[in-house]
């Protein structure tokens, strides 16, 4: 009996497990569920991809519009630059025209203002200038008193200043470009004319106003007064002579 029990136990130990097969219907359901789940995921991915594509398309369209606007701005800038270039050209033309007019005006003014060759008209202008500037001084008592106190050195100095003024006027102003007439080919006729007219005008004005003969009674005093006023008469004569 004990031997039989051992055999039965041994048989139990060597018995293989029985595999339970699932039903085909359940397997099909699982497969369909998996397929549906995959379809759902695929559909969502497609929708998301479509949405992304739409967004990209809109961005591309916006970018295209921006590019068009930039092109329009560039065209406007080009037109503005072209207009600016035209304005610059017009300004240059205006400046050139103004420059030509200025040169023309300056030429006309120079022709009228600059002295010509010495002639009778210059002598008349010298006389007028000498009278205008010497007349107020001829009737001024302070001038008489100053002339009375002049010593020979100061009198010679005034004569030298008068000559210096005439030399500067003839050789270092507008006259320097003119061919001056000369007396004995040495002294410019304009210089002699201004000196003679200046001192003659001073003497005549002093005599007409009664200064010489009534107020000024001595020869030395009269000489000093003529030299003194002759300086200013000379300045007036030279100034009037240089203006045409």
What is the assembly state of the chains in this entry? single chain
| SSE topology string | HHHHHEEHHH
Main sheet characteristics: 2 strands, antiparallel
Count of domain modules = 2
Low-confidence stretches: 1-14, 16-22
Distance between the termini: 172 Å
Q: How many H/I helices?
A: 8
Helix content, binned percent: over 70%
Mean pLDDT figure: 78
* Number of distinct beta strands: 2
- SSE class: mainly alpha
Q: How would you describe what is shown here?
A:
It is a single chain. The chain is rod-shaped, with a radius of gyration of 61 Å. The relative contact order is 0.10. The chain has helices at 2-14, 24-113, 120-138, 141-148, 152-171, 189-208, 211-215, 219-242; strands at residues 182-183, 187-188. The chain has 2 domains: 20-113; 116-242, no CATH class. The protein starts with a helix and ends with a helix. It has 244 residues and is mostly helical. Helices cover 82% and strands 2% of the residues.
């Amino acid at each position: 009996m004990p031997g039989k029990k051992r055999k039965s136990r041994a048989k139990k130990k060597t018995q293989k497990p029985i595999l339970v097969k699932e039903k085909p219907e359940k397997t099909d359901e699982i497969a369909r569920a998996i397929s549906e789940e995959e379809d759902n995921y695929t559909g969502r991915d497609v929708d998301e991809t479509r949405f992304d594509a739409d967004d990209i398309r809109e961005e591309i369209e916006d970018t295209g519009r921006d590019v068009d606007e930039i092109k329009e701005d560039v065209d406007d800038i080009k037109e503005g630059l072209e207009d600016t270039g035209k304005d610059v050209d017009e300004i240059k033309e205006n400046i050139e025209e103004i420059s030509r007019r200025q040169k023309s005006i300056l030429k006309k003014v120079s022709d009228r203002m600059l002295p010509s060759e010495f002639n009778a008209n210059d002598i008349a202008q010298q006389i007028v200038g000498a009278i205008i500037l010497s007349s107020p001084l001829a009737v001024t008592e302070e001038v008489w008193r100053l002339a009375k106190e002049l010593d020979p050195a100061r009198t010679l100095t005034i004569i030298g200043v008068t000559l210096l003024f005439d030399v500067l006027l003839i050789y270092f102003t507008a006259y320097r470009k003119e061919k001056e007439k000369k007396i004995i080919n040495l002294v410019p006729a304009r210089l002699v004319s201004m000196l003679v007219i200046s001192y003659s005008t001073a003497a005549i004005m002093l005599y007409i106003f009664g200064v010489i003969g009534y107020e000024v009674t001595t020869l030395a005093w009269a000489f000093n007064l003529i030299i003194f006023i002759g300086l200013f008469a000379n300045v007036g004569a030279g100034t009037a002579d240089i203006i045409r």
